[in-house]
Amino acid sequence: MAVVKADAYGHGAVEISKAGNRIGINNFVVAFLEEALELARSDINGEILILNYFDPKYLKEVVHSGISVSLFNIEQIKEWNEVLNENEKKALKIHLNLDTGMRILGFNIEEAHEVIEYLFENGFHLEGIYSHYSDADNVDRDYSNKQLNSFRTFVNEIAQKFNVECLHMSNSAAVLKYKNDLENYVRLGIYSYGLQAEQNILLDEIKPVMSFKSVISDIKNLEKDNTVGYGRSYKAKKKMKIAIIPVGYADGYSRFFSNNGEVLIKGMRCPIVGKICMDQFAVDISGLNKKPSIGEEVVLFGQQNSGFIKAEELAERIGALNYEITCNISKRVERKYVEIV
Q: How large is the average pLDDT for residues 50-64?
C-alpha cells in the first residue's frame, strides 16, 4: 500500500497515485476523508483506505465511492449501524485498527474481540485488520517484537472464526527488519519517495523523488559591515556578492535555515546569509568562480551537476524529520513531474 497522505508527503497525491497505477500499485492509504475523495474523483484505480476519523454524515458517500475505512472506536460502529441500511453495511469496507502498543488509535485485544463479534452480528463486512509499529526504527527490537507477537496472536485467534482478507502492519522502517508472514500488504510511506526510513539502515537503492528548485531573482554587492535582511542578523565581514532567491517560509522553506543552510548554484554550495523571509532569502555567491546570472537555476535540495543536498541533511540541520522537509512545501510551489524510464 502506497501511503499518499499529506498530499503524498508534499509530492502531490494525485500524480503520485497515478504513477503508482502505471507500475501496478493499486492500494493507497490516506489520513482523511477529503484526501480519499480527491483520489476517488481523480480516477485513481484501486483501493483507498482512510486511517482517521470522519463525520458519519459522509458515510453513505464513502460507501458509494468504495473507500475503505478504519474502525478504532466503539462509538464509530454504533453510529454507522444507525446510519446505514443492510446493503450498505455489507458494502462498507472496514479495516479494524488494533492497538498493539502505539497508544494513539485502535482497540486493545479484549475490545477488538468484542467489536468483531458486534460487526458480524450486525451485518457488517470486516475487510482488514491492521496495527502500527511505534518504534520500528529503534536498534532495540524488543518492543516492536512484542507488538508483532500481539498482532500475530490476535490474527490467529480471529482466523479460527472469521475470514479477513487484508492484514497489514509494517511501515517503511519495519519492512526490512520484521518478518510478518501474516501480512499480505505493507504500508510504504517514505520509502515510496526515496527518503531513508532510519539512520541506522541506509539504502543506496533509495533515490529521492523530489528536488526543490528556484532561480536567482537579483544579485547585489555588499560592502564590509553591511547587514542583510530582517533583524540585521548577518553582517558582511568584507566586500561580497549575494544572490536573492525568491523562496521563503510561505513556501515551506523553514526560518530555521536562516544563517544555517546552503543552496546549490552552478553545482556549488552557497551559504544562506540573513533570515529567511516569507518570500525570499539571500545567499553568499562570493566563492563562485563564475558569476551567475539572474534567472539561473538554484537547487534548495536535490542534485545539480556533481552537487547534492538531501532532505536528510536539511532535516538534521534543524532537528526535523526528512519527510517534514517535503511535507512542509506549500501549495503555492508549482510541482512539475518528469517520468524517468
A: 96
**Mean pLDDT calculated for residue range 183-209:** 90
Residues 180 and 234 in one domain: no
**Joined grid coordinates for residue 3:** 501511503
Name the phi and psi angles at 271, rounded to 5. Answer: -75, 145
Please identify which residue in the block is written with the cell numbers 526528512.
Answer: 322
At position 135, the amino acid (one-letter code) is D
From 5, 93, 177, 275, active-site residue? 5
Query: Is residue 120 scored above 90 in pLDDT?
Result: yes
- Residue 2: what pLDDT? 97
Rounded CA-CA distance 96/80 in Å is: 14
Per-residue confidence band for 201, with pLDDT thresholds at 50, 70 and 90: confident
Q: Would you say residue 108 lies in a domain?
A: yes
- Kindly tell me if the per-residue pLDDT of 199 is higher than 80: no
Number of structural domains in the chain: 2
Helix (H, G, I), strand (E, B) or coil at 312: helix
Residues 6+ apart with CB under 8 A from 95: 49, 68, 69, 70, 71, 127, 128, 129, 130, 166
Q: How confident is the model at residue 59 (pLDDT cuts 50, 70, 90)?
A: very high
Range of the domain at 236: 212-327
Cell of 22: 502505471
Task: Evaluate whether 27 touches 39 at the Cβ level (below 8 Å).
Answer: no
Q: Measured at the alpha carbon of residue 27, what is the angle toward residues 90 and 124, in degrees to the nearest 5?
A: 15
234 is an active site residue: no
Annotated catalytic residue, options 146, 207, 230, 239: 230
Domain membership of residue 204 (yes or no) is: no
How much is the average pLDDT of 147-157? 95
Active site residue 230: yes
Beta strand segments in the chain, E: 2-3, 27-30, 47-50, 68-71, 93-97, 125-130, 166-168, 212-215, 218-222, 227-228, 234-235, 240-245, 262-265, 268-273, 281-284, 297-304, 307-309
User: d(Cα 92, Cα 84) in Å, to the nearest integer?
Assistant: 9
